[in-house]
Design a protein that fits this description.
Length: 337
Amino acid sequence: MIYSKPWISYLEQLQQLKDRGLIITDEARALAYLERIGYYRLSGYWYAFRERSEAYCPLEPEGRRKFKRGRTDHLTLDSFRPGATFQQAVDLYVFDKRLLVLDALERIEIGLRVDIAHTLGKLNACAYLKPELLHEDFAQRVNQQTGLTDLHKWQENQARLISRSREAFILHNKEKYGLPLPIWIACEVWDFGTLSHLFGGMRESEQDAISAKYGIANGRVFASWLRSLNYLRNVCAHHSRLWNRNMTDQPKKPGRGEVPLFEHAWGNTHIQARPFLLLCIAQFLLMSINPASSWWLRLADLMGDFPDLEDIGLDLKGMGVIDGWQEWEWSKAIKNP
């Protein structure tokens, strides 16, 4: 297909929104937001304001792939719900504090780097180069399309991180001792994706030993949490819409009684697919890394600033909040491993 939508000016973008029914009370201010933030980024927030129609499609007509054959489905229209305003979309954008989430994920990332490096380093200083010290599926099973193992791909990425790093301690160790670097040095250049992929490729005994530090007995469950948090991290790092995002990489349910405050969340498909559950997991991990952290209090303050969108049918349930979260006492819910 050839992309056919034409370029339009900021003024034309503003007029298009007005023509579709979005209320704009201060055109100069709205124009400034379009120029600074951009139509496409803001559209992720006003998308929830758009009207929907129901239609039944017994056969799937050409060009109508949003419908599923033989069922009633919802089609999102270009027009906006009555009462929806441009400022409400901006308020949602301002509410969507991704930097607060990144603050928690940074602390978790640093703590897990140490856990993985310490655990694998005890086996061998360069355990990340030793297939026999990692899970067989990760280290030895060859992808029939690429001819590589997952460990090969991970090592390539690790090598790029080491090669392009200009950290003084990396340059010093490369010059004095050469390559490969021991894992407790190499880990300092890992990002969240690098560490989560390596954790997923560890043997079950080492996975379980690390996850037990956080009160989770099953390291495979913990590995799914790290994959989900890495997805969350990527959304935030790329400044994408977060508040009501559908989280495609969802975390597995932990063992009974391991996360009593929000264990029941896994019985609700909407909550499982929204970011609030991952924020709960982040707080759960922070309670082991830094029990004195005020991160949850800052998150609660932010949640209290959610814009008033009741007139267009939107509230915090869009991000999958769990009933009663305001009364949770985290200090009583964390078990010492």
